[in-house]
Amino acid sequence: MGPQKMDVDPVGAVVYWGVGETDRDELGRELGHIGLGKFLPGQRTPDSALFNALKDSVPERGITRDYLIQSHRNRGDNGYEVVEVHKEEQNNGYEALFSARVKDDKITFSEGLWDYATIDASGVQGSYDHFRQVITGSSMGSCLVDICQHLRGTSLRPSGGIYWLPEDAVSLWDEVGLAVSRSAVDESSVYRLRTVMDERAAEAVIDAITSEVDAQSAEILDGIGELGERALRTREERSRVLKAKVEHYEQMLGEGLDKLKSVCDIATKSAAHAVLAQL
Predict the structure, then answer these.
(1) Is 156 helix (H, G, I), strand (E, B) or coil?
(2) How far is CA 243 from CA 5, 240, 262, 267, in A?
(3) Model confidence pLDDT, tens digit, residues 252-263
């Protein structure tokens, strides 16, 4: 006997993910196709890519010596120095081996004491190119959090990682999942579990949006009397967007969320009054 069919009306979805390195150019094309190109993470900086390329290519330690990668002053222009550490009983010895810097995405090495049989310069350049091309897993996670917020999602736990999206965002989230899958360099998965809005599910969502409103309102009001007009108007707009999100949830859940709307109104009025005080 197979599983019984149940007729249910899903409302929204729980979403989460596990993502690794992702091709930035490909992700940019994919997100652009679905109108979310503005959420593409920035490219890794040349000095960050150089550091990681050296880290991949230079051994960390040997039997009698270790190696350190130290930045020069103004590492964006002057790059990094590889230092050999001679391990002794009392005082270690340190010897600068060579430096590497980047200009126009090409790595140049200084003449030094390094045994170049141990490091492949073309391999360092290849690693550098890779790091410039890919988005890290942590940056991809931040990207997906931003998209969740854009889709009026809310975090189901204080530490994040699991989000709930309203019904009208589910189809676009599925497209986001496909975009990530098509762009992945490492294994990556974006999950979506449809939800039925019973009493306990509604309680979880209301608790989540309440925590979000409390946290964001506190941020909006923090130091409000010390901000300039432009910053105050930004906070006023944030509070209006937050109230619109609460109203969206109110309509979707069929429950009044007057207390949360009042909190948003207080934040909006406080920011507006602070703006007026500066005129």
Answers:
(1) coil
(2) 39, 5, 9, 10
(3) 777 777 777 787
